[in-house]
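seq:
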Amino acid sequence: MKTWVCHDYFALSGGGENLMATLAAELQLPLSGGFVKQNLSLSNDFPLQSIHSLGAYQGVMPLQILSLIRRWRRFKAPSDYPKILYSGVYSPLAVHNHSGCKNILYCHTPPRFVYDKKAYYLQQLAFWQRPLLRALIAFFQPQYERALQQMDGIIVNSKHIQQRLQKYTGVSSTVIYPPCDTQDFVTSDNGEYYLSTARLDGLKRVDKIVRAFLHMPDKKLVVASGGPELARLQGMAGNARNIHFTGWVSREQLITLVAGAMATIYIPMDEDFGISPLESMAAGKPVIGVNEGGLLETVIPLHTGVLLDARQDIVEQLIRLINSANSEQWRDYKPACLQQAERFSRDVFIRKMSAYLEQI
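struct:
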């Protein structure tokens, strides 16, 4: 199973980055990234210096994307590696350099700025910037779709992404769920606050969580993440004493914060998969989520959490739910949460990925 692993880039400790770091560590595979941000903290303390960086540009987004496209199109793994595993949306562009290999893609999602969220991303831009994004999409989309057609196998992280990929590209795939490091998380019954760990950008809808807690000054919220909306959300919270922003935290701090929560709140828009709910359940903490996207495959309503109705006012639903619940009720979810998280453990993931890579 001599396989070279490629991931778009390592800018934050997200689900895709930790998934590939876990796979490379467990199977002792070499790993390349478009660039590697210094002082990044990946799961299992994966050493950043062992990642082969392509040295792509790390600055403003349009130039960063163009740099990643260019670097990956030029990348070629050593000739003695018969299998190449790509992860993300830019690294697959290197497939044309590996025609003599078995090429496999682990797809976290087809690029959302090209497909299902194209209108959303255009709306976020000033009117004069929109033609630039349209030009980038026109340039990138055919390259991406050609790369998909050259793959010998495609893995996706959920049934939800399997359907999305089929809808937009017509490509079939196999589901292998991402790993949750269940052994890292600890349980505690002394929950004092609600916790949000979603990245702070518009698609994650953390603004709705903040808005709900502004109406509940007696309930505590900890927002343990960063992102482009941090300043806006801090401004929205103002001087509210019940809402605390930590910014990005280390892995150890995250584990401590999850252990100290009553429940976690994770309500992104049509999420691809979402590892945060599983990390919450691994600590015995129920998830307040939303009934769409990958959460439908991980959160069991009224057993490991509560799924809000995405078609109704989410802020009002959060207020009603949290005002009607207490810490004892949330603790009752603990046994089912721990059991559900184990279905997505690292061992399960490695076993399934190993079998896939062996047989392809």
